[in-house]
Design goal:
Helix content is about 75%, strand content about 0%. By secondary structure, the protein is an all-alpha fold. α2 (about 20-40) packs parallel to α4 (about 55-65), α3 (about 45-55) runs antiparallel to α10 (about 145-160) and α4 runs antiparallel to α5 (about 70-80). It is found in: Cell membrane.
């Protein structure tokens, strides 16, 4: 019996890990499709958002600002600010995927969604012996059930529009998605401290416009996590 192909194994492992996110990606996409049509966008414009941008949080932000008649520059800058976390994701994965060819890194960047990043970061940390090809295959597998479903769900939401009953409460998908991604990653005191600080600061600064409070909370969380790691390392060195 031939030995299993490690690249194929990595892909299907990523695919299996990404499957549970269908439970939240689907309603999230439906919700954006509905929100886009209710904001006055046609089918092509709604699908253009999801295919070209493929970033749910910034898409919702942009649509809301457009409804509020905000200037185009404000729409672009605010959406970019909401999506700045992708820069942190990229920096985190760079040590693992940096040697890949430019066209492969371009595909990784395009399909960089929260779910794929969270799965890949955890997998690379637990399996550091993987080759670059295996890491790319895992990333592709994690994206395979998530990204196409986002497109399909957006199309269904835009097609159905306001016909979807409000009692479906599709907006539950957003917080559940992030809880599912963050929960398994809280494996150390630094992780818990950073998460706690981000929650508190985000709530305290919720009054700030255009997601500014979230950016400040993210920065405070990173500083807190780094300081706690330094403190823990010093404590261990003294023992």
């Amino acid at each position: 019996m031939p030995a299993p192909n490690p690249i194929s194994t990595a892909f299907w492992r990523g695919f299996r890990h990404g499957l549970p996110f269908l439970l939240v990606v689907a309603p999230f996409g439906l919700l954006f499709g509905v929100a886009g049509t209710e904001a006055g966008l046609n089918m092509a414009e709604v699908m253009g958002f999801s295919i070209l941008v493929i970033a749910g949080a910034s898409q919702f932000t942009a649509v809301q600002l457009m409804v509020d008649q905000a200037p185009v520059l404000m729409v672009l800058l605010t959406s970019l600010a909401v999506n700045l976390r992708m820069a942190m994701y990229s920096a985190s994965l760079a040590p693992h995927l940096g040697p890949a060819p430019s066209w492969q890194k371009a595909l990784v960047a395009y399909f960089m969604v929260d779910q794929a990043y969270a799965l890949a970061a955890a997998d690379y940390e637990t399996r550091p012996e993987q080759s670059l090809a295996e890491k790319l295959a895992y990333y592709a597998g994690a994206c395979a059930p998530v990204c196409p479903q986002w497109y399909v769900a957006t199309w269904i939401g835009a097609w159905a529009g306001a016909a979807i009953p409000p009692e479906f409460a599709l907006d539950f998908a957003v917080p559940i998605t992030f809880l599912a991604m963050i929960g398994p990653g809280l494996r150390s005191l630094a992780h818990v401290a950073a998460a706690s600080v981000s929650v508190v600061v985000a709530l305290v600064l919720a009054f700030l416009p255009a997601g500014t409070g979230l950016l400040i909370a993210a920065l405070a969380a990173m500083i807190t996590g780094a300081q706690v790691e330094i403190w823990v390392a010093r404590r261990r060195a003294m023992e």
